[in-house]
Design a protein that fits this description.
- The structure is a single chain.
- The protein is an alpha+beta fold and 521 residues long.
- The protein has a single domain, classed as Creatine Kinase, Chain A, domain 2 (2-Layer Sandwich), CATH 3.30.590.20.
- Helix content is 45%, strand content 11%.
- The protein is built from 16 helices and 14 strands.
- Strands 1, 2, 3, 4, 5, 11 and 12 form a seven-stranded antiparallel sheet that branches.
- It is globular.
- 44% of the residues are buried.
């Protein structure tokens, strides 16, 4: 055992034992907006060749018919995860019509897109519910905000890890309860330190002027077509993107699963005046699932979520409270417009190191004061993260972002050492070194690179995004899928359509009755 590895084990209070870190899994859900050759949001329907958005396990849609979502299974090997994500992109490009592009930036250009088409999932009750949820989002927040795209990173540790770690922690809890407790432990730390990910990987410091047309904002003029904030990192996660004024005062506690579930359950069943004004139904048309603060659990905007794969017809909260947390979903990641997949191996290595660090480090219980302190830090980094003089709040005291980031990343290096030791390489330590360089020079961050490229090449945000979209399109089309993968993707698409029809054929109650039962649960 090297001295470095010994130091890292001691840092987390671990014995000289193998925690089976090599078997950790990650999966990626990547949103990509279909756009026309002019960069406008595509108004065409979801391509039939891609299968059913309701049942295809690889390709679905998010808010709009135009907002594709690519889903990978969970893999132990990073190359496997990125490999299938690339295959999904290639298959999709083979089946796009009218020379459409996949927009590479998180922030869209919405010019001429007054009628953004809601995602459609067929005539089954669950399909109609999914579309109604999006109609509710449209009425509550407007469609433009919902076309913002990001990457969700799903992370889990294997049962073999939890069994050994439970013994190390000398816990008498059941394996399910121990795992849930430690995932909540991870989530609390993630909230404390998630501002670091926004600084390191945020890639949305600028937007097209058309994106904020008719909306209040405090962005500065960059050029005739673009607005920006000079030191912004991730506008997608701020007031212009994934935010909700209605949720600003909502305190969601992650100390216990029951407390978390109770908070969201209450929000789903508590009427909210502004949404009551919209109404639930008008002239025979459903407008939203309900008039509560949240229509569904998924409407709660958070940088990370505890997750469990639900059984058919089971609500996510019910699945969590019944069987515990199975994995966590990181939701704070922009698309990197300079990477064909929006993410790469180096970023994944750091994410794994970061999440393992959050899991193994001490994690005090959260309280309301800290919860809103963390929200304030995130808001500051979103808009001013690359300002060298920016300070954040740590337990009520002001500390320079760069000093805190340097200290934090050096500490995260301990988890990178452990991961390199089990994988027999230096990829994780190298990923940490790459982040240290970004702390020293903020121009190396994706947000810094976006503004630097716009400035040096005299490009608007729109033209930079279009150039990169065309470049990545050529990348995906220059190489064909192998026959086995091609057949798998095609057969999966065809089978998904058949599965949707089967679900629709087996409905035995009306949608009104289904919705009433859903809201009563």
């Amino acid at each position: 055992m090297t001295g470095q590895n010994k130091d890292s084990l001691e840092r987390f209070g671990l014995p000289e034992s193998n925690l089976d870190l090599a078997a950790m899994k990650r999966g990626i859900e990547k949103e990509s907006l279909r756009v026309t050759t002019e960069g406008r949001i595509a108004l065409s329907g979801h391509p039939q060749e891609l299968g059913s958005a309701l049942t295809n396990p690889y390709i679905t849609t998010d808010f709009s018919e135009a907002l594709l979502e690519f889903i990978t299974p969970a893999y132990e090997q990073i190359d496997d995860c990125l490999g299938i994500l690339e295959n999904i992109h290639r298959f999709t490009y083979q089946n796009l019509e009218n020379e459409e592009l996949l927009w590479v930036a998180s922030m869209p250009c919405t010019m001429g897109s007054d009628e953004i088409p809601l995602a459609q999932y067929g005539n089954s009750n669950i399909g109609l519910l999914k579309t109604l949820y999006r109609r509710g989002l449209h009425h509550r927040y407007g469609s433009v905000m919902q076309t913002v795209a990001g990457i969700h990173y799903n992370f889990s540790m294997p049962d073999s890890f939890w069994k050994t770690y439970k013994e190390i922690c000398n816990s008498s809890a059941s394996l399910q309860d121990f795992r849930t407790e430690k995932y909540l432990h991870l989530i609390r730390n993630f909230h404390r330190f998630s501002w670091l990910l926004l600084y390191l990987f945020g890639a949305s410091p600028a937007v097209c002027k058309c994106f904020v047309q008719g909306r209040e904002h405090h962005l500065q003029k960059y050029d005739e077509y673009s607005l920006y904030m000079p030191h912004a990192t991730c506008l997608r996660m701020g007031d212009l993107g994934y935010s909700s004024n209605a949720q600003q005062s909502l305190f969601v506690c992650y100390n216990e699963l029951e407390t978390y579930a109770e908070c969201l359950h209450r929000a789903i069943h508590t009427p909210y005046p502004d949404y009551e004004e919209i109404g639930q139904k008008k002239d025979g048309e459903h407008l939203q699932i309900n008039t509560s603060l949240l229509q569904l659990e998924n409407e709660f905007y958070s940088t990370i979520r505890p997750k469990r794969v639900a059984k058919p017809g089971q609500r996510p909260l019910d699945a969590l409270t019944s069987d515990g947390i199975e994995y966590v979903e990181v939701r704070a990641l922009d698309l990197n417009p300079f990477l064909p997949l929006g993410i790469d191996e180096q970023q994944i290595c750091f994410l794994d190191s970061f999440l393992l660090y959050c899991l193994l480090s001490d994690s005090p219980e959260c309280n309301e004061q800290e919860y809103f302190e963390v929200k304030g830090n995130i808001a500051s980094v979103i808009e001013y993260g690359r300002d060298p003089d920016l300070s954040l709040s740590m337990e009520g005291k002001q500390v320079k972002l760069r000093e805190w980031a340097d200290e934090l990343v050096r500490d995260i290096n301990h988890s990178a050492v452990l991961l390199d030791q089990v994988h027999g390489n230096n990829k994780y330590i190298d990923s940490v070194s790459a982040q240290m360089a970004k702390i020293e020079d903020s121009d190396l961050t994706p947000s810094g690179q976006v503004l630097k490229t716009m400035r040096e090449q005299n490009l608007s945000f729109y033209h930079l995004s279009m150039e990169q979209s065309e470049k990545h399109k050529n990348y995906f089309l220059e190489k064909s899928l192998d026959d086995e993968t091609q057949n798998l993707m095609q057969e999966t698409a065809v089978q998904s359509i058949s599965k949707q029809k089967e679900i629709e054929a087996n409905e035995d109650i009306s949608f009104d009755e289904f919705l009433q039962n859903w809201n009563a649960s």
